[in-house]
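stage 2 :: seqdesign
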């Protein structure tokens, strides 16, 4: 299996792009594109995406990121259930079998920000202790905390999730460029474009149910 993961598809700016890099990026883009179009089938792609990321991190010995994949899987399962089993007061006006888009209030946004900072500090400290070779432990931890928050808010169909995803995309572009990656900044730019589009799409859905 690991031999297949090491297959080089092409090179970009002198850097190899592996099969697992391409497959995981493609699945991730499909997943967020479908989520942005309010499709419940994004979760099925999300399961494949989580598996691909698990293999990617295992192949590259990125065990700190690998350990978070079970958490991502749990959030994906939660989102799949919530999107398809809304309570009577949560149903979309267009589809009573679908969860409607809602928005966080001011207090909830403050708690999310506080949670991100708390998790980022704790995870960054742990990364610094366990993986001293990581050049950006706290920046990595901020990105990780934001990703988990974005996934959680998306699973609850909160419009604010796309604000968090935009922050993730911008931070990841900076992070990848800082270490000389070329392929992933391109992928993250596509995520960024989809995030802006989805922000407007979900706002329309929110107003329809307002």
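stage 2 :: out
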């Amino acid at each position: 299996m690991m031999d297949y993961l090491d297959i080089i598809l092409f090179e970009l700016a002198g850097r190899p792009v592996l099969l697992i890099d391409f497959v995981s990026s493609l699945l991730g883009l499909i997943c967020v594109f479908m989520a942005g179009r309010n499709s419940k089938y994004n979760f099925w792609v999300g399961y494949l995406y989580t598996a691909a990321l698990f293999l990617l991190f295992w192949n590259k010995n990125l065990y700190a990121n690998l350990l978070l994949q079970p958490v991502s899987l749990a959030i994906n399962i939660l989102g799949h259930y919530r999107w398809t089993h809304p309570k009577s007061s949560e149903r979309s006006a267009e589809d009573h079998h679908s969860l409607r888009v809602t928005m966080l209030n001011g207090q909830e946004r403050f708690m999310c920000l506080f949670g991100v900072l708390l998790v980022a500090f704790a995870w960054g400290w742990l990364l610094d202790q366990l993986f001293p070779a990581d050049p950006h432990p706290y920046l990595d931890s901020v990105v990780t905390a934001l990703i988990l928050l974005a996934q959680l808010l998306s699973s609850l169909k909160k419009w604010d999730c796309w604000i968090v995803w935009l922050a993730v995309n911008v931070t990841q572009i900076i992070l990848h460029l800082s270490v000389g990656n070329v392929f992933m900044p391109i992928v993250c730019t596509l995520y960024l474009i989809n995030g802006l589009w989805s922000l407007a799409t979900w706002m329309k859905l929110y107003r329809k149910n307002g």
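stage 3 :: structure notes
- The mean pLDDT is 87.
- The longest strand covers residues 8-12.
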